[in-house]
Design goal:
The complex is a heterodimer of chains A (about 260) and B (about 150). Chain A is built from five helices and 14 strands. With about 260 residues, chain A is of the alpha+beta class. In chain A, the strands form three sheets. In chain A, strands 1-3-4-7-10-12-13 form a seven-stranded mixed beta sheet. A four-stranded mixed beta sheet of chain A has the order 6-5-9-8, with no helix packed on it. In chain A, helix 5 links the parallel strand 12 and strand 13. The radius of gyration of chain A is 21 Å and the shape is globular. The relative contact order of chain A is 0.13. Chain B is mainly alpha-helical. The longest helix of chain B is centred in the middle third of the chain and has 33 residues. The chains are: A alpha+beta (about 260), B mainly alpha (about 150). The interface between A and B is large, with 61 and 64 residues.
Chain lengths: ~260, ~150
């Protein structure tokens, strides 16, 4: 039988394997260097789409440009110039009535505060009702009014997610509740809607794993509010959104 | 140890890897020096550094490539030809290169019975705990092999 190799005893062999691997793939990795940080957000975006897919929604990528999905990298830029996902779900009501619900999953779209009109912030991922984007052209705001500012109005926002390629720490977790309070105040007050179709609750998605203290904070926050805090998405990116685990995901109703 | 990973990479990325490695190395040195009894099982610190460098490389690069691949697989499944990310495109050719890098990485991990869960740590105490468990598993495997022979 072949003895298992050990990095403690066969260190030279491990170094050789690493060197061989890098010699083969170094130029490719170097070519991707500028995009590496965007890939984690991409994975989170993919996970949210997967959540809807596993919850009976029909998923469609729209606003394609010559068959290409144009990914929105930053809050600037007009949403109509970028691709996004549309999710649809049809309900059959009593008396044979049917109703089709349609939502858009956007990336880096500004949303209006639910407390005060005229102030905006940009969560990483936002789920809005179809056609819920409005625009504003005001010289006091952006680019002296030369450019329109697009945002999702409060009524159309269904849920949002914040993605951080970081290890969890207390301030980060508590800051997220501030964002929930501003964007979806009813969730913060515990008065979220319960009507179908359901959405994933506002979520904080972190790549790093938590320690005892941050896990305790995660538990208390998710017990108090209808929000999700996911840790360790480096290793189990899709797992919390899988068909099996999605039962454990906290959901809220549509607005 | 990290230098071999950083070689020829753009500065933005190599600096990130290098700084993380240096921080981790200092932390490991501190832990091993402060708690010599707890970490007496460590007989070769260089191997620990090597695994630290490998973990940083996995977390910073390979895990991210896996993320991009999962997203592109979804879109290719919907018959979308490519993804435009800024000025770059992720098409089938790029995805194949990604798959090849991911596959080769896992292949050499497999040779050493390294599971990526080894790299799943919150702090460096956790990291050393994972390494200790891995060390134990390897020793047990070696004992089994010796008995089998």
């Amino acid at each position: 039988m072949i003895k298992p190799k050990s990095p403690f005893k066969d260190k030279a062999l491990l170094i050789y394997e690493i060197t061989t691997f890098l010699a083969k793939h170094r130029s490719y990795i170097a070519s991707q260097a500028n995009r590496i940080s965007d890939y984690f957000e991409m994975s989170a975006y993919n996970s949210i789409v997967r959540f809807y897919e596993n919850n009976g929604y029909h998923v469609q990528a729209v606003n394609l440009f010559n068959g290409s999905f144009k990914y929105k990298l930053s809050p600037t830029g007009y949403p109509e110039r970028f691709s996004y996902f549309v999710v649809q779900k049809e309900y059959n009501f009593r008396g044979g009535k049917k109703h089709k619900y349609e939502f858009e999953i956007h990336h880096n779209l500004a949303v209006e505060s639910s407390i005060d009109k005229g102030i905006y912030t940009t969560p990483d991922i936002s789920v809005i009702s179809k056609g819920g984007i409005k625009s504003l052209r005001d010289y006091r705001y952006f680019f002296s009014g030369h450019r329109a500012y697009y945002y999702a109005c409060t009524e159309s926002l269904q849920t949002f997610c914040e993605v951080k390629n970081l290890n969890p720490f207390p301030e980060l977790l508590f800051n997220f509740t501030g964002l929930v309070s501003e964007i979806m105040n009813e969730v913060f007050l515990g008065k979220e809607s319960n009507s179908r179709p359901k959405h994933i609750g506002p979520s904080l998605m972190l790549s790093g794993n938590g320690n005892y203290h941050t896990r305790k904070i995660q538990k208390t926050l998710t017990d108090r509010l209808a929000i999700n805090i996911f840790f360790g998405l480096f290793f189990k990116a899709a797992q919390p959104f899988s068909r099996y685990y999605s039962k454990r995901v906290i959901k809220i109703g549509s607005r | 140890m990290i230098r071999m990973f950083c070689k020829d990479l753009p500065r933005s990325l190599s600096q990130l890897l290098y700084n993380e490695y240096q921080t981790g190395k200092k932390e490991l040195d501190f832990l091993i020096k402060t708690y010599p009894k707890r970490y007496k099982w460590i007989d070769d610190i260089e191997s620990i550094y090597l695994l630290l460098a490998l973990s940083i490389f996995y977390r910073r690069i390979i895990a991210q490539l896996e993320s991009a691949k999962a997203f592109s697989d979804r879109l290719f499944g919907l018959n979308i030809g490519n993804i435009q990310v800024g000025v770059d495109y992720i098409d089938e050719k790029v995805t194949n290169q990604m798959s090849s890098a991911i596959y080769d990485f896992y292949q050499f991990l497999k040779k050493f019975h390294i599971f990526v869960e080894l790299f799943d740590y919150f702090d460096y105490r956790d990291f050393l705990k994972n390494i200790k468990n891995y060390h134990k598993i390897l020793e047990r495997k070696n004992d089994l092999e010796a008995n089998y022979d």
